[in-house]
Amino acid sequence: MVMKGSIKLEHGAGGEGMHELLKLVLSYFNFNNVRGNDRIEREVEVPLNALDDSAVVDSIVFTTDSHTVKPLFFPGSDIGSLAIAGTVNDIAVMGAEPLCLSAAFVIEEGFPFSDFERILASMKKTCEEAEVSIVTGDTKVVEKGAVEKIVVNTSAIGRRTEALERNMKEVRKYRELHSNWLVDSNLRDGDKIIVSGYLGDHGVALLSFREGFEFDTELKSDITPLNKLIYGILEVGGVVAMKDPTRGGLANLLNEFSEKSNVGILIEEDKIPIRESVRSACEMLGIDPLEIGNEGKVVMGVVKEKANEVLDALRRTEKGRDAAIIGSATNELKGVVMKTRVGGMRIVETPIGDPVPRIC
């Protein structure tokens, strides 16, 4: 595969541009199996080309993420908390238990020690909340201008849980399920789509602080580790797919579900939890709130027989009290379609890029 020109911001923004970049990467690294040092072939249960939030090799769940945020500190959180929570969540949405993390820092010369310690303290606090530890890492200091202040990379490994086993067993009471993990391709006709809470808080809070807008002085980022919330939902059972709506927001996530599962998705606008302050800010800026990144929410596909039970369980928790069923998968449609508040139908397309860059 040959791509002309140069890499642009849109290639890292979670929409069609990033998908093009990933196609290039996959053309070099799309292996269907791997070998260890002992030359024994390893089973790749969830490979790179699945483009799920984590890979699974010999039942070991593995993910990595790099974070470059502007500004580093914003209402409700900072780059340190984001790095830990985002990586923990990528493990958890596969149905796995995060075990430990690595942390690597690329730091621009002249970066204040006080800011670095503030980031480290935030990372420590988020690790304690998620009950995970950083066990290895790396630091690099580069000349001014080589990076913008600091870039944080975090990786994590996880393992299968008994809760996931029980969840899959519950799903199979109602229909076939070929995968043993919560992957994007598991969605089928009739499955319900559930969102764990208000969308758009992170992106709008960061944008308003960065640009000096005063949409809602109380609005804060939603960054939080979701592994404990997810474990509790798996105990209820019935979940087939799960993902956090980060870059590209809900619009990108649902299109990934739809494309990989080969099923349409119909959602209802008036059931999607979005704060009025977020909706107003998006209208003023000409931004679709469905395309804004989030860092403390999860979207899941659930068999219809268990959807209300899962919803009730979510609403009994602090992090899921505003959860809602927003639609369902259907074979009667192609792609993602939204029934608007006024009764019309609107196609929800994969965004070209994130309308609010540098937020994760």
Describe the structure in your own words.
This protein has helices spanning 16-29, 79-92, 113-130, 162-171, 201-211, 227-236, 249-261, 276-285, 307-315, and strands at residues 34-35, 41-42, 44-46, 55-57, 60-67, 73-74, 77-78, 96-108, 133-142, 150-160, 192-195, 239-243, 264-268, 299-302, 324-330, 336-339, 345-347. The mean pLDDT is 91. With 360 residues, the chain is α+β, with helices and mostly antiparallel strands. It has 2 domains: 51-160, 2-Layer Sandwich (60s Ribosomal Protein L30, Chain: A), CATH 3.30.1330; 162-347, PurM-like C-terminal domain (Phosphoribosyl-aminoimidazole Synthetase, Chain A, domain 2, Alpha-Beta Complex), CATH 3.90.650. Helix content is 30%, strand content 24%. Helix 4 packs across helix 6 and helix 6 (227-236) runs antiparallel to helix 9 (307-315). The strands form 4 sheets. Strands 12-14-11-15-13-16-17 form a 7-stranded mixed beta sheet. It has 9 helices and 17 strands.
Instruction: Strand order, main sheet: write it out.
Output: 12-14-11-15-13-16-17
Mean pLDDT: 91
Query: Termini separation (Å)?
Result: 28 Å
Helix and strand string, N-terminal first?
HEEEEEEEHEHEEHEHHEHEHEHEEE
In CATH's first tier, which class of the largest domain applies?
Answer: Alpha Beta
Low-confidence stretches: none
Overall shape? globular
Q: How is the main sheet built?
A: 7 strands, mixed
Structural class: alpha+beta
Number of helices: 9
Question: Into how many domains do the coordinates divide?
Answer: 2
Look at the structure and name the CATH superfamily of the largest domain: PurM-like C-terminal domain
Could you please say which CATH topology of the largest domain applies here? Answer: Phosphoribosyl-aminoimidazole Synthetase, Chain A, domain 2
Corresponding CATH architecture of the largest domain = Alpha-Beta Complex
How big is the Rg? 20 Å
